[in-house]
Amino acid sequence: MRDHYRTLAARAEHRLKVERSEFLGIAFHVESEEAFFDELAAVAKRYFDATHHCWAFRLFAGERARSADAGEPSGTAGKPILSAIESAELFDAGVVVVRWYGGVKLGTGGLSRAYREAAAETLRGATLSDRYVYERVRVIVPFERMGDVYRLIAAPDVVLVSEEFGERNVFSFDVRRSQSERFLQLLAEKRLTVVLSEAKDLGFDQR
Predict the structure, then answer these.
(1) Is pTM, for the whole model, over 0.85?
(2) Labelling 109: which of 1, 41, 72, 174 has CA 20 to 30 A away?
C-alpha cells in the first residue's frame, strides 16, 4: 500500500493568454470532494465574469479523481487539467482554470493545449510537500534502555511523537506504514514491550 505522496503546500496561480482568451490557473490542496467544491464555489464567485470555470482534482484516499469541462467542448478542459495533475504526480490537489473568452475560437486541439498548459504551469510554480501515512506505536521503555530507543528515530520513517515518564516510561512513535513491520521486529529483538500498535493514517509534512 502506498504510504508516501506529494501534494501542494500552498495555493498557486498562473495567468496565460492564448489568442485573445485569458486563462487563470488556480491550484490548491484539498483532502475531500466537499472541500474541493467549496473552493470551486469561491473561485466562481470571485471570478463571476468569466466564461468558464473548468476543473479537476485528485485525492489520495481511494486514489479518486474527477474533472469537468464546465461548458467547453467535451474532453477539451477537464481531462487536460487532470492530466497535468497526474503528470506532476500529485495527490490531494485541485486545479481550477478560469477562462475569459476573447472572441477567437481556438478549436478543440487549441483548447486542450491551453487548458493543460495553464494547469501545468500553475503546478510547476507551486510549492510542494511530501506526506507520509503513519501507524502509531507506543512502547514501554525502561530508563536503562532509552539510548537504544532514541537510536531508532529516523525521520521521516520513524518520528518520536511523545514521551511519558512515570512508573513506566511510554514513548509514542509514528512509523511509516511500509516500515512498521520492520520497526516492530526491531522492538521485539530489543525485548521492548509494545502497548499499542494503532493502524491509523497520520499526515506528516516533510518540506
Answers:
(1) no
(2) 41
